[in-house]
Amino acid sequence: MKKVILVLILFSIFSNLHAEDNLKFYIEKALKNNLQLNAERKNFESAKQNKNISRSEFLPSVTISGDQSSSTSTNRTNQSGASLIDSNLDSESKTFSVEQQIFSGFKGLNTFKKSELETQKANLLLKKVEQQTILNTTSAYFDLIFKSKSEKFNLSNVNLFERQVESDSARLQKGEITLTDLAQSESSLAGATADFINAKTELLTSKTNFERVTREKAPDTENLNEKISLILPETLDASIELANLNNIDLLISQLDYEIAIKDLNIERARLSPSAKINYSKSENKDLSSTIDETDQEMVKATITWPIIKGGENISSVKKSSFNKQRYQLMLQDTKNKIITETTNSWSNYQSSKSVLKATRAQLKAAEIANEGITLEYDSGNTRTTLELIQSRSLLLDARIASAKAEKDFIVSQFEIAKKLGSLSIKSLK
């Protein structure tokens, strides 16, 4: 029984370690900790309050007010010049008022609909930052893997050339090779060392970028899971169709145009008559020397119709009309841009798939060639030092190219998913 429990505990530990090494784990961390994303969440909550603010125009407003005053009259005289006694007057009033807007030329209705559209826009802006955060995290994750592989490849290359220099020094003493051959090996070792130093620097930069994006410490890349995929359309036409329906930038542009229409309707409503009704009740004490206390109730209906405001109202309507036309043109431009960007992303996705296939074939051929040339060189066959160096250089380039192609292929999938508007934590497989 104890062994079973121990096995379950170890399985749980390794499962958790594996869970914390996959892309989804770091995306969730980035979505939780990203400062810009948290700022957009606050903006969305703020936008939702605009609906409550605009809804208040349909509800009555209630006001309670009161005041208290005290006055003293001194040095009073009558018409004949005789002195009068000083007088004191203390007064107090309380007023309760209820006001209801009856009609405002549909200004209130359009303002409320505008606030709904602004809330939808804030939600889309939040989703846009979420998608960009997922893309940035994916790019940083696989760039970290690629830079780590590049460092290992270059370190392995340095080790190979160190052994070759040692071997060539011994062969030179035996007279099997010339001093020129040894110099070529030493030169290649120096170049490989420089490339390794550069690879280490790039890995450090990649780690720093990863930690900035995810706000998590960069992990050991040995345990990172490189298997990830997204469900994508099979054709360019299907991709464009999805982008026209779900692309975030396009949806935001459409909302901007609809908001501009509401702004125009609001400005037109300001030219219309408006009506409101007011009920008030007041209590006054010591109103005068002859009246000690009085209560008053009043109902008032008010109709206003702005006629001329120095041209301000007409100009406001014209301004909103021009804004509407502006956003309409911007919407059309966004539609065209989305088609172009989706096409470019699709082409990049397809080409990265072909490049990955080609680099894998290149790597396989380079490994076979290098193995054969190395065996022939070590056996003292006709292979020269230069041929061995060139073979190793081609192998290193093929390894790095294959690793980079793998990263580019995965990132290209996320980029096109972002254009389609389908990129989310739930879409990862």
Question: Describe it for me?
Answer:
With 429 residues, the protein is α+β, with helices and mostly antiparallel strands. It has nine helices and six strands. The strands form two sheets. The protein has a four-stranded antiparallel β-sheet with strand order 1-4-5-6, with no helix packed on it. Residues 1-19 have low confidence and may be disordered.
Largest sheet: 4 strands, antiparallel
Task: Examine the coordinates and then state which fold CATH places here, giving the name of the CATH topology.
Answer: Outer membrane efflux proteins (OEP)
Radius of gyration computed on alpha carbons: 39 Å
**How far apart, in Å, are the first and last alpha carbons?**
36 Å
Observed structural traits:
429 residues; alpha+beta; Outer membrane efflux proteins (OEP); two-stranded antiparallel sheet
Topology:
Elements: H1 2-19, H2 23-33, H3 35-55, E1 61-73, E2 76-77, E3 83-84, E4 87-103, H4 107-174, H5 179-214, H6 236-246, H7 248-269, E5 274-285, E6 293-304, H8 312-378, H9 385-420
Antiparallel strand pairs: 1-4, 2-3, 4-5, 5-6
Helix pairs in contact: 2-4, 3-4, 4-5, 4-7, 4-9, 6-8, 7-8, 8-9
Short précis:
This protein has 429 residues and is of the alpha+beta class. The protein has a single domain (24-67, 89-427), classed as Outer membrane efflux proteins (OEP) (Up-down Bundle), CATH 1.20.1600.
